[in-house]
Amino acid sequence: MPLVESEKYHYYQLFPVPILGNNSEFYFHLPYKPFLALTDKAHLYMDQACIHIQSKEYICRETHKSSTSEDSPCAVQLLTYKSKVTTCQPVHILLHTIQSIKITDGKWLITAPNKEIAIIHCQDSKDNVPIHGTLLLESTPDCTVHIKSFTFVTTKINQLNFIDVHLPVMNLAVNFKNSQIQEIDPPSLDLRTISLKETQEIQTKLEIQKENLKTINTPIYFNRTSIWTILLYISIGSIIGFWILRKVCIINRQRRIQPPNEVEIIV
Questions:
Q1: Among 103-117, 142-156, 181-195, 253-267, which range has the highest average pLDDT?
Q2: Beta-bridge mates of residue 27
Q3: Sheet strands (E) in the chain
Q4: pLDDT (tens digit, 9 = 90+) per residue, 166-214?
């Protein structure tokens, strides 16, 4: 039996979104847990998503809620729009290529480290939209969005729009020292260009090459025959040959000395 309370919560799914700072560098905050239920007085962090019962009604597995105060976690302070955040530890991140996170079908968080042009095709129309920083992309089923080598397509959403992600301004120079900032250089990886079939074929070929290398690396052993063994074989062969020759000579000699058969003539 779930416990029900009358107080209404705001339910959030948290993502580590890179934010472009005033110094043209990107920072992000790692959430404590991926889901958060929040009121003006309390908050509840969760590892798993709540079960959606019906419109605006959820059942959550976690029951331990905490009171919201000045020392509440960073996400709570940001979402309650505190004038001064004290528990956030931003991480400096180096971005060289476009990064994207799919939230739901038709919704993506896009981070463009440089100024780019998003080309939007909707049936017979075409628009070019400049983007820079972190934005929320919402697309329609009849529209396709191209940003450099990325293509975004949806099947369910009814609107198309870029929405800027606004969060309270954090004074990094005041709240954080340089030693507290960690730089991360994430590798660029476009999973859409990887075919699972191709990876399976590559794995099979690698296994074959591995077996071939095992065969090549197997040491080859030669049976080294000594000179004494060769002489022994020659001696045995000579003795056998001499014995056969002697037997042949004896047989021939016996044939030569044998008297002719006598023939008796009767008249």
A1: 103-117
A2: 19, 92
A3: 10-13, 19-20, 26-28, 35-38, 42-46, 51-54, 57-59, 66-67, 91-93, 99-104, 107-122, 125-138, 143-147, 150-153, 161-164, 183-184
A4: 545 444 444 444 444 444 454 444 444 545 455 556 656 666 766 666 6
Determine contact, residues 35/102, Cβ cutoff 8 Å.
no
Map out the domains of the chain as residue ranges. Answer: 10-196, 222-258
**Residue whose C-alpha is closest to residue 165's, from 5, 9, 16, 11:** 16
Q: How far is CA 21 from CA 25, 68, 94, 186, 227, in A?
A: 5, 27, 12, 18, 86
Q: Name residue 112's amino acid.
A: A
**Buried b / exposed e along 24-36 (16+ C-beta atoms within 10 A):** ebbbbbebeeebb
Q: Cα 45–48–51 angle (5° rounding)?
A: 105
Type of residue found at 69? S
How many helices (H) and strands (E) the chain has is answered by: 4, 16
Phi, psi dihedral angles at 13 (to 5 degrees):
-110, 125
Give CB contacts under 8 A, 24+ apart, made by 169-177: 170/85, 170/88, 170/90, 172/21, 172/27, 172/90, 175/85, 175/86, 175/88, 176/89, 176/90
What pLDDT sits at residue 177?
45
Contact (CB, 8 A) for 43 and 74: no
